[in-house]
Amino acid sequence: MTAVARTCVHDCRDLIALFNRCFAQSEVTLLVGGAPEPVYLPCGDSGCAEIHFTRDYFASALHEIAHWCVAGRERRQLEDYGYWYAPDGRSAEQQAEFEAVEARPQALEWLFSEAAGVRFRVSADNLAQNLGPSEAFKQAVHARVLDLCTQGVSERVAAFTSALLGHYRPELTLGGLLSPARFARASL
Length: 188
Prior knowledge:
Elements: H1 12-23, E1 29-35, E2 39-41, E3 49-54, H2 58-70, H3 92-116, H4 135-151, H5 155-168, H6 174-177
Parallel strand pairs: 1-3
Antiparallel strand pairs: 2-3
Helix pairs in contact: 1-5, 2-3, 3-4, 3-5
GO molecular function: translation elongation factor activity
Protein name: Elongation factor P hydroxylase
InterPro entries: EpmC
């Protein structure tokens, strides 16, 4: 692992410690920072699966954790969960496919960001084409986060969100965080 610097209140080393405390034993999965590109590696020689996030980017860590939370047991046996990914420079058709599968992880990232007290930004992840997130994509992310608020979250999401709240926003409970009023569409 590359050293990850402590730069502010929202330090990636804290995220690593929180995640690993929640899941190193129960899910045999570690969060690892300092990677040039994000990647998920299933259990290998280390005996643990690893979620690698980009450099020391707090948002990258939250986003990669969100993907891990979405992936089911079978997907977590595959490198990068076996998902299709086209790098920056996608066509309009590829971008539409990207947006169709990214709404759920980005909704979880928004939930995690709110729990940590950091601003969430919807990402179209296609800078070369100068395509920001479409209004339809923003609406889809918003709809998914509202679903989380009304339908509840999985056990893994609840555990990590509670750990974030305990560290960054101890005045809030998970139930208090899962209020639709906290997730205004206008903030996207």
